[in-house]
Amino acid sequence: MAKLCINLPPFSPDYSGVASSLFDLKCLSILHDASGCTGNYTSYDEPRWYGSQSPVMCSGLREIDAVLGDDEKLVRNTINAANELKVELISIIGSPVPMVIGTDSKGIAREIESICGIPTLGFDTTGTKYYDFGMSLALIELAKKFMRKQDRVDNPSVNLLGANVLDLSCENELRDIENIVKDCGVHIVATLPLGLSFETLKKAPSAWANIVLSKSGLKLAKYMKDKFNQPYFVGLPIGEGGKFNFISKLDQIIFNNDFEKIERFDESSNTLIISEQVKANAIRDCLNFKNCKVATLFGIEEEISEKGDKDLSCELEIINEINLAQYDLVVADPLILNLIESDDKKLIKIPHYAVSSKLFKNEKINLIGKNGDVFFKK
């Protein structure tokens, strides 16, 4: 019962993370379920869905299919749809029922590719993990399938990894990040998965280094470091302080300059920031408070953690943490802030689509560069 949520909705799951990562490719994504999970993704976890032409379909899994294990029906229908839509990639994405009956999504993907010749990826997602895991999974599989070692391009260059619509609050954030990188004299080879194309996917190994913009891109960065010898750093340029740290890391990794980090001196507030881990770290740099802790809802990466940072794995842990008397300022999604029981804390609302979906879709906040300082000073 520890995982039971009374007040919060379910957060975006792993199968939504996979589908979202493949959204910009000419990919037929088949969510293998009875339609509930497909509806959950298209209605609540994908802000780009309405008005798009991305072919995301449901396998229409029924009880008799589960009982008899009729995978041939899935294979046949998928190939027919792929040929009719003339797609360049197929993905078979698992959900809770395939997990329970032991469906081999990777095996089905291999069979489909052998019959129709269209590259096919299988994902044994279960709906029990979160979107960042699914995104990591999709990016790694794409890298294994399409990336090959290349000569490094002549000009200083990077890839932006983990850029996704669930963690970036508005469209302008990615544009402003790209402008900061370009103003440093660094070319951007590929941005993954936002704006993903097969051409940029294949070019990505030629970049000098990688910048990880969210936790969902960290595993890909580690893979590309091992496979293509590309160094990486993790960060977002939120506020002028965060921008300074971001540019300093970029200078270090591209031009071998010394890394200078702004030290935290302000002890005026005991602060708790609950968000995606990379974004929460960047907000901490922006606020510049010395007594500031980061908490995540989707698992914590020790590599980018500081002492005292926490992983809040269930609603009860969230409630207990945010109501501690030591915090006088809490930064989080509005639904998280609703769990605070006292009126003596200062609250800063930053909607997170993976938590509250469309409820606050009109409250898009650009925190990149000086925008972050303006927002928090208000």
Structure description:
By secondary structure, the chain is an alpha/beta fold. It has helices at residues 14-21, 36-45, 63-68, 71-85, 96-101, 105-116, 131-146, 171-183, 198-203, 218-228, 239-255, 277-287, 315-322, 334-337, 353-356, 370-377, and strands at residues 27-31, 56-58, 89-93, 120-123, 157-163, 187-193, 209-212, 232-234, 271-274, 292-296, 310-311, 329-332, 346-349. It has a 5-stranded parallel β-sheet with strand order 11-10-9-12-13. Strands 2-1-3-4 form a 4-stranded parallel β-sheet, sandwiched between helices. Helix 1 (14-21) crosses helix 7 (131-146) and helix 7 (131-146) runs parallel beside helix 10 (218-228). The longest helix has 17 residues, at 239-255. It is globular.
Fold topology:
Blueprint: H1 14-21, E1 27-31, H2 36-45, E2 56-58, H3 63-68, H4 71-85, E3 89-93, H5 96-101, H6 105-116, E4 120-123, H7 131-146, E5 157-163, H8 171-183, E6 187-193, H9 198-203, E7 209-212, H10 218-228, E8 232-234, H11 239-255, E9 271-274, H12 277-287, E10 292-296, E11 310-311, H13 315-322, E12 329-332, H14 334-337, E13 346-349, H15 353-356, H16 370-377
Parallel strand pairs: 1-2, 1-3, 3-4, 5-6, 5-7, 7-8, 9-10, 9-12, 10-11, 12-13
Gist of the model:
The protein is α/β, with parallel strands linked by helices. It has helices at about 15-20, 35-45, 65-70, 70-85, 95-100, 105-115, 130-145, 170-185, 200-205, 220-230, 240-255, 275-285, 315-320, 335, 355, 370-375, and strands at about 25-30, 55-60, 90-95, 120-125, 155-165, 185-195, 210, 230-235, 270-275, 290-295, 310, 330, 345-350.
